[in-house]
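Practice problem: predict the structure.
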Amino acid sequence: MSLQLDYKKSKRVCNVTFTLPKEVAGNAKKVHLVSDFNQWSQTATPMKKGKNGSFSVSIDLPVGKQYQFRYLIDDTRWENDHNADMYVPTVFGNAENSVVTV
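Answer:
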């Protein structure tokens, strides 16, 4: 898993690329990035499958904030990002969300 941050010089935003490697995605047909920045929508932010089997998506996010997120694989399996800045408990109390700080 990977988080790549590209801070824009002219704006107060950071382009964050979220990547879920094939080793974690397995034979997934689809993966969605589910986050507080998309109101926890399970369909709003689909990730694109690469030739190597990984999934990725890039999002411009305002800097100076923390964002919670998880990956939803084939609408059934949740996965965190092992390269997240930290983890926080979900409101359900039985799992954690990944956090990226930009």
